[in-house]
Write a structure and sequence with these properties.
Blueprint (H helix, E strand, L loop, with lengths): L27 E3 L3 E5 L6 E6 L4 E2 L14 E3 L21 E3 L9
Length: about 110
């Protein structure tokens, strides 16, 4: 039998307004948890710094941009481990290709 219960909340009028979030300036957007830096030329995310972990989350040495759409070929040649679950099958050689002359839709 699922648990049964309830919780009541009281709505109160406050005189204080919550502070407005800071407006993004230039290529950097930050708050108390993260600092995000955008690439002005491409619009891609260049850096995400986690302030709690004190760690950079984006691999800057990658040949691809963060969260970039890639077209990958090579996994369609059967038999391989991608198409069929078996350790006896070979691992296919995948070739990633960055999109060319693509556009995003609103």
């Amino acid at each position: 039998m699922p648990p049964v219960g309830y919780k009541a909340y009281e709505l109160r009028q406050t005189k204080e307004e919550p502070p407005a979030p800071p407006a993004p300036s230039g290529k950097t957007v930050e708050n108390q948890y993260y600092r995000v830096v955008l690439d002005a030329a491409s619009g891609a995310v260049r850096s995400i710094f986690d302030r709690d972990l004190n760690k950079e989350l984006v691999n800057a040495s990658s040949p691809y941009r963060f969260d970039q759409y890639l077209y990958v070929t090579g996994g369609d040649k059967s038999p391989n481990r991608i198409l069929e679950y078996s350790y006896a099958l070979s691992i296919p050689e995948l070739t990633p290709t960055a999109p060319v002359a693509g556009r995003s839709f609103p």
